[in-house]
Amino acid sequence: MNDTSHYLELMKKVLTNVIYEDPPQGPWYAHESYDKDMRSQGQDWPSVAHTMVGLARLQNVRECLEQVLADGVPGDFIETGVWRGGTCIFARAVLQAHGVTDRTVWVADSFEGIPEVADDGHPVDHKMALHRHNGVLGISQEQVKANFRCYDLLDDQVTFLPGWFRDSLPDAPVEKLSVLRLDGDLYESTMDALTHLYPKLSTGGYVIIDDYAIPACKEAVHEYREKFGIEDELLFVDPGCAYWRRSG
To answer: What family is it from (predicted)?
Structure first.
């Protein structure tokens, strides 16, 4: 294993905290202990780790970024819905490890948690009522910045986009993207990100849907793909996370 791979593998382990094995938290995990398989698959809410997406999904971020770099696909990386910032921290680490100095990592989040969903005809969003858990999910922008600093990765290649996506994304100063990662859980959050950011995704770039297993998120993805005639093959990192590569 070369130095780049060793560094990025270690970053994955630290960001997911599979090293110290912190227990999960939240309404579904409060009385459970650390489970290696759940953590590696991004199936719990860690109490300490800086990301909840798991090892496989971080590896997917690495592979997508390294592929666009190898192919010369222009554009930045963005994640919409960052929690403690771990996935964006990892994306910045990938760019640093490859000596890339001309691409930005965009960190888009309300930094207040999940919005309370209006009655928009998507009852699954209401059923989840994730805003009730904003004590766990609402991480401040200053805390996310502090987490970047822990890895010496907060620099001028990291830009924050605070606010609800319906407000922050339409006029976001993002010019071109090579990797677009959506982790907003809800129908509205997913549709807002696709509507305002997918047109900025370069041909050959990737869109990653972290919450594809959530029916409301899946509905938004398929509605958008059908509306714009997107037929690029859906691939799966695991049963809950899908992605595709833009062909045109």
So the answer is: Belongs to the methyltransferase TylF/MycF family.
